[in-house]
From TrEMBL:
Species annotation: Iodobacter ciconiae
Keyword DNA-binding included in the entry's annotation: yes
Keywords assigned by UniProt, alphabetized: DNA-binding
Pfam families attached to this UniProt entry: MerR_1
Protein name: MerR family transcriptional regulator
Length: 121
């Protein structure tokens, strides 16, 4: 018996319209995630901070819609746990900030050993 996946693949989600703000209902439709899940994710992922206006209504910006899609992909398609997805997002952010680049520990160790050998001579 085949299992039926109820998760819409990210590639099949509708395109994101060119507008500045999106309501929680719009983000829900654009990302294939229920509004209560989006509110829960706000608590779990510190990067997700929609603007709150009158009556505590949430308004998401374009980059946050993309972030929701990324979180959705990590959890529903790639099988990460909430904690794993949180870690994955921080690794991606660190790489984008340049923190993940540079010499490895092994390379640094070899340089330091060479420097120590030179100092001993």
């Amino acid at each position: 018996m085949q299992s039926i996946s109820l998760v819409i693949p990210t590639s099949d989600l509708p395109s994101i319209p060119a507008k500045r703000y999106f309501t929680i209902g719009e983000v829900s439709e654009l990302c294939g995630v229920k509004p209560h899940v989006l509110r829960y994710w706000e608590q779990e992922f510190t990067q997700l901070k929609p603007v709150k206006r009158r009556g505590n209504r949430r308004y998401y910006q374009h980059h946050e819609v993309l972030l929701v899609r990324r979180i959705r992909s990590l959890l529903y398609e790639q099988g990460f746990t909430i904690s794993g997805a949180r870690n994955q997002l921080s690794v991606l952010r660190d790489d984008a900030d340049g923190i993940g680049e540079g010499p490895t520990v092994t390379e640094l160790r070899h340089e330091l050993e060479a420097l120590l050998a030179w100092l001993d001579d």
